[in-house]
Please model this.
Amino acid sequence: MPITATPLSPALGAEIGGADIAAGIDDADFAAIESAWHKSALILLRDQHIDEDQQVAFGARFGPLAPWSRFADKVPTEGGRNPYIMLVTNIQENGAYIGTLPEGDIEFHSDGIYVEEPLAATMLHCITPTTHGGETAFANMYAAYDALPAGLKSRIDGRKALHAFTYNSTRATDNEQRKTNPDDVARCVHPVVRAHPVTGRKALYVNRLMTQEIVGLPPDESRDILAILFDHIETPAFIYEHRWRAGDVLLWDNRCLAHARRDFPPTETRLMKRLTIQGTRPF
Model:
């Protein structure tokens, strides 16, 4: 079957048809998939019955796999588990979570924005979805930047922002930030507006969960501008919300999308397998 790319929403995303990761994807078909990804920022492949090694092999075609995240010590690798796969789940064994991000909602953010070379892409393979809640929402940061008033663009172009990882992924609650030793928090400064290294398009690169301040501005001005930007990014016209099904493989571009997780009942089981692609320093 030929590769097809059907839009998922007016805001972003494309569903890829004609691709079976387990059966193998030739170079020509992969080129079509990668092109759709760069055009749509997010691609969805339904009904993929793959193991961890197949997920890793597919992900590696998009770029170098990222090194272990700061959650690596919480993810077991015994029994043949692939070391590039992170479990995102609320499953417990012996009273302890076997993975990360077990429960609750998570505000809009971009994976790895708090390190010098943030993640280019994130892939999730859905094993067990919840029947209620648990959707992942994606915000188009290209569109958000393009729609800004000229005056606001001029205030942020060339500026940089400080980002920090303060979210406690081991809490079985929502977005409560942990009180911890400041020296233990990963943080980095990046442009407020970044250029995508492949498409060349400008995208907003701030988010409600991890962006702390705009560097060089008075605190009140920084806080006011960020509040405007956060609300603007979350405008419904810029957002696609994905309802998960078993077998979904979703790959999104952290360089031009922000994402958030909706809450779900803690009594429901959720299991995802996460893979990340290394990026370069934003410019």
